[in-house]
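Notes from the 1:1 (GR / supervisor)

We went over the backlog. Supervisor wanted to see one worked example end to end before approving the batch request, so GR pasted a single chain during the call. The sequence is below; no edits were made to it. Supervisor asked that the structure be written out right there so they could see what the output format looks like.
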Amino acid sequence: MLIQLTLNGKRLAAEAAPDKPLLEFLREQGCYSVKRGCETSNCGLCTVWLDGTPVLSCTVLAVRANGHSITTLEGLQKEAAEFGGFMADQGADQCGFCNPGFVMNVLAMERELENPTEAEIREYLAGNLCRCTGYASQLRAVQQYLAWKRGRNHEQAE
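Structure output shown during the call:
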């Protein structure tokens, strides 16, 4: 089936089998940040944005993306690099396998929640599994990144 969508800001028309998961379709398009982890919709590694909302691409059929906008980490390189610096500073990216899904969710949370509390951050990121860290370093990285963004936005407003 021919599907048409916007992938990372560019229009795309491509064939997709009716039963093909969006995850596999995106990897075929060169979006290798989208990873398969648990195969049970529990790890968050395959997180992408469908019309700006985080979804698990292993649970969405590619044909369901027809007519929609998909954003992967490849489409958010500048923002991802900014946040990645905070992850590195806190030692929160040990093996890095979970980072793409985690970064996608943090950037979505930043857009959705104006000034999230620690509890809101934990709740928003609950579906991201990491086998290397104890999440404390990731939480610190998120909090420092959000504080930095608020400070930067405040300076720009003045």
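Supervisor's comment: The longest helix spans residues 136-157.
Batch request approved.
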